[in-house]
Amino acid sequence: MKTRFETISEARKILELPEAATFDQVKNNFKRLIKKWHPDKNTSDPATAEHKTREIINAYNIILQYCHEYRYSFARQEVEKYLSDRERWFRQFGNDPIWATETHNQH
Questions:
Q1: DSSP string for residues in 59-100
Q2: Under 8 Å between Cβ of 26 and 67
Q3: Tens-digit pLDDT profile for residues 23-47
Q4: CA–CA distance, 61 with 72 (Å, rounded to integer)
Q5: At a CB cut-off of 8 Å and minimum separation 6, what does 29 contact?
Q6: CATH 1.10.287.110 applies to domain 1-70
Q7: In the chain, where the domains are located
Q8: Contact call for residues 48 and 3 (beta carbons, < 8 A)
Q9: What is the pLDDT of residues 53-103, one digit of tens each?
């Protein structure tokens, strides 16, 4: 019997996802692969296309279930890991007239 990690890892690989992915990446890869393998599009080998389509849908459902059960952290330390470049820059230099991008761009 596969562990939960093995099941999720296999699903991730089927969806051609990196080890860390956004939900948009999950959706986009799913859509791209379904378009590629759907039996209506891939008529040269209907049996393989049907098998791959089922495999992709199953993998997507496994990843969705994992995402729905995932506990997101809203702690400051975790949220700040995902600051934009602009936010990080402003945090470091603030309104300093030499380094602040808004002020610097006006010169």
A1: HHHHHHHHHHH------HHHHGGG--HHHHHHHHHTT-TTT-
A2: yes
A3: 999 999 999 999 999 999 888 899 9
A4: 19
A5: 15, 16, 17, 21
A6: yes
A7: 1-70, 74-107
A8: no
A9: 999 999 999 999 999 999 989 999 998 888 888 888 888 887 776 765 554
